[in-house]
Amino acid sequence: MRISFLLHNAYTVGGTIRSTFNLAAALATHHEVEIISVLRYRQTPAMGAPPQVRLTPLVDLRRNSAHYDGDDPRHAQPARVFPRADGRHRQYSRLTDERIGLALSRPGADVIVGTRPGLNVHIARQAHSAAIRVGQEHLTLSGHGWRMRHEIRHRYPLLDALTTVTEADARAYQQLGLPGVRLQAIANSVPAPAARPAERTGKTVIAAGRLIPVKRYDLLIKAFAGVVASHPDWQLRIFGRGDTTGDERNTLTALIDSLGLSSHVFLNDHTGALETEMAKASIAVSASDRESFGMTIAEAMRCGLPVVATDCPHGPREIITDGVDGRLVRPGDTQGLTAALCDLIRDDTLRRRMGEAARHNSTRYAPDHITGQHLNLYQELLKRGPGRRSLSPLQEAAHRARTATIDTAHSLRSTARRTWNR
User: Quick check: do 2-189+370-390 and 204-365 share a fold?
Assistant: First the structure.
């Protein structure tokens, strides 16, 4: 089977890139796999290219490259196919429209897989007629604005299937209504760690993920102040990069200083050897207000760590069994986080038992198991054959009219907000 993945940028760091690389590498052991990266900003992928997988960049934005496309006049023209409602629209152009269209229209791939809404739209509109078209949702339907949901409702019926990373999000898409589209929840795969499982004897709690407000590291730091009050010999280590401004890191550093936790809470840059750091810890924690899945939760469990997490939509409650392999607390509950962490810190036997259960239960995310689910889906779709390939001129005209109305309303709202804020 020949499988192509369409990815925004395979050369940087991100959860979608990591999960795509994991899946592509597992599939490539028995199938011909290609990753098409729309954009290229560096020579080699920051996360390392998956073995036996062909990597094909479409638009080269390396300024020192002989193939630099930044000066192409089409690069300065806004994209027409990639939807304006997708938050990455400004990075797309008439040039990306053309290059993606050429890559998708050439015969060869049996299955073409998109990895974000705007790219799923490209696949729906431009993939060659013999290919199976599969969209992936790595975030959540509720995380998209109303303009993007309008685009999804209209374009996605041209897909053969859509996969989500949680059952909860699959139910949300079912309620949206996508006639003829196979909806299936398939979790992200998490390889077995190369490091030895955590011994859970170190007095360290670990958290990992981007330094962004939705991860609620501020809440976690405040909760850990309560932990330190009872267990001053324990530390919290947070691993993650912030944005280019460094505002979130500065805010969190100031909070740590104000609470007198500079000897107990440490902010560390993203590390490529996170599993090694997890092996040194005894407990993992996530305080997010929202997660689409929770890769670091599953990774921590694969390392044998019990995880304390907020019971936020959508992922943690589908990964953690409360009281068995971790603890779930209400989102925003500082005292609840403190109490759950202290329970595990005080009770070595409980911590060990939950850690072993976490390691055992997380094997359901092993690449072979997850890859098998994707393969079964692809094979069933290939037996059925490609579905509907285009919309009628009347449907397309109605969509364009409705989209124009939505864009106008959005523009008026934005103008009104700016006026009000003055």
Answer: yes
d(CA 380, CA 361): 28
* Cα gap 270→279, rounded to integer Å: 16
pLDDT in tens, 105-150: 998 899 999 999 999 999 999 999 999 999 999 999 999 999 999 9
CATH code for the part of the protein at 2-189+370-390: 3.40.50.2000
Q: CB-hemisphere CA count at 13 Å for 285?
A: 31
Structural domain boundaries of the chain? 2-189+370-390, 204-365
pLDDT digits (tens, 9 = 90+) for 160-216: 999 999 999 999 999 998 999 999 999 999 888 887 888 888 999 999 998 999 999
Domain covering 204-365 in this structure, CATH number:
3.40.50.2000
Q: What is the dihedral angle through the alpha carbons of 55, 59, 61, 62, rounded to the nearest 10 degrees? A: 40
The DSSP letter of residue 191 is P
Please provide the average confidence, as pLDDT, over all residues in the chain.
Answer: 91
DSSP state of 352: H
Spatial separation of the C-alpha atoms in residues 181 and 308, rounded to whole Å: 36
293 near 315, Cβ under 8 Å?
A: yes
- Predicted TM-score (pTM) of this structure: 0.86
